[in-house]
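Hey, quick one: can you model this chain's 3D structure?
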Amino acid sequence: MRRKQRGVIGLDLSITAPAGCFIPPGWRLGVWEDLRYSTFPQILKKEQEQLEELSTRYARLIEIGAWVLEFVRTHNASDVYVENYGFSRSSSSVTRLAELGGVVRTRLFESGILLRPVTASHARKILLGQVPKKDSKTETHLRLWKHNAPFANGDECDAFCVANAGLSDLGFPCMMLHEAH
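Sure thing. Here's the predicted structure for all 181 residues.
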């Protein structure tokens, strides 16, 4: 017996500006007003240096974990997806991202919620049809905004993209902004 679907949440985790997007069950594709999305207060560039101090960084991780748990509880989604770690040679925040992922996964697990990982390239391919060779993240954001998506920043776009991939993963209709070539 299949359980009742209560919507999907997508999370874009970062220590500077994490975001979440809730897609309700039965979402009418392109009716942006039906979505709920939010970004945790962003850290300014000059404040990022303070994260080198462990107590400051750990406090931020705990605050983000609490924010994510509240976002998930508020929307009571049946499925929660998170953008998987995107490690690259040029990434200087690998340790911080892994620390944040651990905090968030633990907080949600303690509440009976399992996070399901989605790779960014998979989520973008579902939305765009193919992943652009250059600057795929920016192209994804621009394509969403071109279709009147109300997201205030790229982090909210990424959270939507993850939630949209979750819809696809579950076999539900999802947004596709494929362009004809």
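One thing worth noting: The two ends are 42 Å apart (CA to CA).
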